[in-house]
Specification:
By secondary structure, the protein is α+β, with helices and mostly antiparallel strands. Helix content is about 40%, strand content about 10%. It is globular, with a radius of gyration of 18 Å.
């Protein structure tokens, strides 16, 4: 299973904004973006680099890269999601974002059972979650409307999951899913609307990038 294994904070610096890829650390003074908010590389601090005119292609590329990095998806898989969205009826960009939101690792994160998508991906890979009582260890598994996602029975005895309900309760739950803290479970009620997805993502620019 391929995944990005390089410095995470460099991704935020390259996009020029916090992508909150490290959970609680991103809200602390230890966040690298707070200390070095410029792009990585020898030219990152130069005024010429920061003030250069941005082309249409670069804006499209940055929109696509930002979405990939937010959801932790590599290029080949991201492009495959776009192709699948293109074949479905409706707005291609919105369908693409809804597909990304429906990934199991994202659903676990949205329910508050992980501090970040990277942590959710790790927990899923280790087999701690089930979909409809079936153990799943594939973070990219798509959670359909009506599916129930839950912490596996054998995992609830671990210290991490014993305190998980109290931690998850402090997290805001999106309106398109439900959560059962007592049983460490939740379900997808419907597909998310555009207003319920990260407003900093520009799906139109992503569609323009792949439509070149």
């Amino acid at each position: 299973m391929a995944k990005y294994s390089g410095p995470v904070c460099k991704l935020c610096r390259r996009e020029g904004e916090k992508l909150f890829l490290k959970g609680a650390r991103c809200f602390s003074p230890k966040c690298a973006f707070e200390r070095r908010g410029y792009a990585p590389g020898v030219h990152g601090k130069s005024a010429q680099f920061r003030n250069r005119r941005e082309s249409d292609y670069n804006r499209q590329l940055r929109a696509k890269q930002k979405a990939r990095r937010v959801y932790g998806v590599l290029e080949r898989q991201f492009h495959r999601y776009y192709v699948l969205a293109l074949k479905k009826r409706g707005l291609t960009g919105l369908t693409l974002l809804q597909t990304l939101e429906s990934r199991l690792d994202n659903v676990v994160f949205r329910m508050g059972y992980a501090e970040s998508r990277a942590e959710a991906r790790l927990l899923v890979t280790h087999g701690h979650f089930t979909i409809n009582s079936r153990r799943i260890d594939v973070p990219s598994a798509i959670v359909e409307v009506g599916d129930v996602v839950a912490v596996r029975e054998g995992s609830r005895r671990r210290n991490y999951f014993k305190a998980l309900a109290d931690v998850a309760e402090t997290r805001t739950l999106p309106g398109w899913m439900s959560r059962d803290l007592r049983n460490l479970a939740g379900s997808v009620l419907r597909l998310p609307e555009r207003s319920e997805i990260d407003a900093n993502l520009n799906e139109q620019l992503i569609v323009e990038y792949y439509s070149r």
